[in-house]
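Hi everyone,

Forwarding the result from last night's run.
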Amino acid sequence: MKWNFRCSFSPSLPDTKIFTTPIKITRSAFPAAIVVRNCMLKLKIEHHYRETKTGALDLEKGAHMAKLIDPSTEFGRRVAQRLRDERIIWLTTVSEVNEPHPRPVWFLWDGETFLIFSQAGTHKLEHIRGNPMVSLNLDGDGMGGDIIVFTGEAWADQQAPPKDQWDEYTQKYTEGMKRIGMTAQEFAAGYSVLLRVKPLRLRGH
């Protein structure tokens, strides 16, 4: 028996672009329970996906981050240290045909979001417009250890970064910009789109 079901989303969120496909259930055992569980999950995610005029996501901040990266644990301290020290993180977006596209990017962790600068008109921007769910991972140690993977929501921030964040970013990548033959001003002009990623989950060991 096939069950077709569509979650009803709030009309107050007209820009929500995720989870618009009906859920198709082919199991005959307890189909209603399965549908309700999946619908509740989708509604919960949509509840978090409230986009403001500036593109920021209306998510709980301080408490959420404290739970995500716990400095009282060895893993949490290692994550925080690597986010300060690492120069490259892998951003994976998903295309309209559901193909994952990983690429290495420069980043700045501000304690709540990842800042990533992009050239205009790139595939990753197109992917994020269609599906804001992304992953970010740091390189492991080559032996299967030191694994750090974030999953979260990405968006193009229409506002310029605060001066202190831009200064921190340019200081972090001074040598990198020199290697690609750019000044900070040239980099800002060429990589003019600011992406922010709000992590929702962290896993690793």
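The helical segments are 31-48, 62-68, 74-85, 123-130, 163-172, 174-179, 184-190.

Cheers,
N.
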